[in-house]
Amino acid sequence: MSIDFDDVEVGDKLPEWSRRTGFAEWNRYAAVNEEFVPFHMDDEAGRRAGNEQGAFGMGNLRYAYIVNALSDWVGEAGIVREVGCQYRAINQKNDVLTVVGEVTEKMVVDGENRVRLDINVVNQDGGATCPGHAIVVLP
Amino acid sequence: MTDDTALTYVTDEMRAAQGQWGGIRTAPPITTTDIRRWAMATYYPQQPPRIYWDADHAATTPWGGIVAPPDFNPFAWPVERPRGGSPGLSGRRADGKPLTGMNGGQTDTYGVPMRPGDVVSARSRLVDWWEREGRLGHTLYVRNEIEWRNQDGELVRRRMSISIRY
Question: Do A59 and B105 touch (CB under 8 A)?
Fold first, then answer.
């Protein structure tokens, strides 16, 4: 299932995409991305790195959640063309992370129907951890 | 006003490397298992979309077959690890301890999708850097560019990334 360029308007919201994160999610991501960094695996190492609550999640996994939210939205006929974000806050253990987004622009570039969105990953307290943007291509 | 004794984490190695393409490496051929595991990990605990693991379904899509998630990393698990690491990680804090590195963010532009059998090559360069006093003390931000191309020379991904060192 896919959405069409003509069906999207500026101001439309990206369907929310959520995950509760902790070692079950981080360890799986570490395994596929070979990202075995002590502060993602061990509470003491996390504290040594300056996070009092211990181990914390990978920025790359939050990035994956953004990519997945966009991919699920555009469907198999759409393309995720660009994704950018900054890691502004730490992903603590048991955070519920939700990818949010809003369409800010529609344009046709190089024959592609492009939709630009502001995106973020917010935690259960409403904290914005990962502001950024994305460009997707729709049929 | 210039203070020649001002704390800096910028190294001569970084200055020499700025703008120079390097870090050239080639990943092993991508397999369907690599893609399936990546998708399962990043969608966990939900089942990932069929385009990432069901060849029969994927054949019916506009892609004509299984493709990798855009953020898939074919360079994970190299048998031989690239030597040297990133220029600049050799920097030391004022107290003599080695710097801690953290991922500050990235912008990826995606070209053609990665597919099973693809062999992706990468090259990278140090673009620029800046320093400021932050929550974690004196902090260095370094911008790198990494370009991936497939076996046909097609652009797969261009990443502009910021690494933080403090």
Answer: yes
Tallying the residues shown for chain B, one arrives at 166
Q: What number of CA atoms fall less than 13 Å from residue A35's CA on the CB side?
A: 22
CA distance A133 to chain B (A): 9
Helix, strand, or coil here: A112? strand
Q: Which residues contact A110 (CB under 8 A, 6 or more apart)?
A: none
Mean pLDDT across A37-45 = 95
B76: contact with A, CB 8 A cutoff: yes
B38 in contact with chain A, both atoms CB, cutoff 8 A: yes
Angle at A53 between CA B104 and CA A132, to 5 degrees: 25
Q: Record the pTM.
A: 0.89
DSSP per-residue letters across B40-64: HHHHTTSPPPGGGT-HHHHTTSTT-
Give me the mean pLDDT over the B38-65 stretch: 98
Share of chain B above pLDDT 90, in %: 70
DSSP state string for chain B = ---TT------HHHHHHBT--EEEEEPPPP-HHHHHHHHHHHHTTSPPPGGGT-HHHHTTSTT-S----TT--TTSS-SSPPSS-STTTT-B-TTSPBPPEEEEEEEEEE-SPP-TT---EEEEEEEEEEEEEETTEEEEEEEEEEEEE-TT--EEEEEEEEEEE-
Q: How far apart are CA B79 and CA B73, in angstroms?
A: 15
Compute the average pLDDT of residues B142-154: 97
pLDDT tens string B94-140: 788 888 888 888 999 999 999 999 999 999 999 999 999 988 889 99
Percent of all residues in chain B with a pLDDT value above 70, rounded to a whole number: 91
